[in-house]
Structure formats: structure tokens, C-alpha cells
Design a protein that fits this description.
The protein is rod-shaped and about 80 Å long. The relative contact order is 0.10. With 152 residues, the chain is α+β, with helices and mostly antiparallel strands. α1 crosses α2. The protein has a 4-stranded antiparallel beta sheet with strand order 1-2-4-5, covered by helices on one side. The N terminus is likely disordered. A hairpin with a 5-residue loop joins β1 and β2.
Length: 152
């Protein structure tokens, strides 16, 4: 099992199978100079700079079109570790893209707490992602609180 993978999870199993398959492909195409193939998961893999037991670069394109590349060269025996690392990079990229999509259209605001007199001795600031309607409600509430404090 590779570092960073949780044992006995479907994602860890996919990651391990992916890395093992890529390593087998690298060994199969040893000395080919360049080789391109499609994995069982539908990823297109391009190896370049292959000579002896050396791989110059790997370019992996996921079925959704997302692409990752590593081009610093390594021994074929390390290909499984390289592929596992690139799997993690693709998963992190997918997670960040999903988060960006989830936050699309939301407004990011920071709110600092204060006491009734407006002092902020403990000064706790939190960040929130609000819809335009939620932001309008928060602003209206803040205006009402400010007006109530000013009337004191």
C-alpha cells in the first residue's frame, strides 16, 4: 500500500490498481522511447524519454480531460510510486474544482465579533460563504444592531 492512502477503501483500491497498472505499462514499454496507452480506468498515459530502465516523463489525461504531468525522470522501478503520487494530485485537483463549483455565486465575507459597545477584546474573525440573499440578511441585521447601539 502506498503512503497517503487509507487502507481498505474503494479509493485506495483504485489508486493502488492504477499505480500498479501504470508501473506494469512502463515495464512493458521499456526501451520504447515513447509509448501511449489507455488504462483500465480510461486514463490516457504517455511515457516519453524511455531508455534502459529510465523514464523521462509521464503525461496522464483523465477521462474528464484533466491532465497531470511529471517530467523530472526516474527509474522504471519507481513508476508505481510516481503514478500513486499523480493519482493523489488528480484527486486533490478534483476536490478543489468541486469546492470552487460549490462556492460559485457565493460571496465570501469575514465577520469579526464585538461586544455590545462595539469593542472586540477577543477579536474572533470567521469566514463565511453566503448566498446574495444571506448576505443581504446579514447586512440588514448588522445595520439594525448598529442603529440599536447608536440609540443607547
Amino acid at each position: 500500500m502506498h503512503k497517503n492512502s487509507a487502507p481498505d477503501t474503494p479509493l485506495a483500491d483504485l489508486r493502488s490498481a492504477f499505480a500498479t497498472e501504470i508501473a506494469a505499462l512502463a515495464s512493458k514499454h521499456k526501451n520504447a522511447g515513447q509509448a501511449q496507452t489507455v488504462t483500465n480506468t480510461g486514463h490516457t498515459v504517455l511515457f516519453t524519454g524511455m531508455w534502459g530502465d529510465h523514464v523521462g516523463a509521464i503525461d496522464i489525461t483523465a477521462p474528464d480531460g484533466h491532465r497531470v504531468r511529471r517530467a523530472d525522470g526516474w527509474k522504471i522501478g519507481k513508476t508505481e510510486d510516481v503514478a500513486a503520487f499523480l493519482w493523489d494530485v488528480m484527486e486533490q485537483d478534483r476536490t478543489r474544482a468541486a469546492e470552487r463549483e460549490r462556492l460559485a455565486g457565493l460571496k465570501s465575507v469575514s465577520i469579526t465579533s464585538a461586544d455590545a459597545a462595539g469593542h472586540a477584546p477577543g477579536r474572533t474573525t470567521s469566514r463565511y460563504h453566503l448566498t446574495p440573499d444571506q448576505l443581504a440578511q446579514v447586512l440588514a441585521l448588522a445595520e439594525r444592531l448598529a442603529a440599536a447601539n447608536a440609540a443607547r
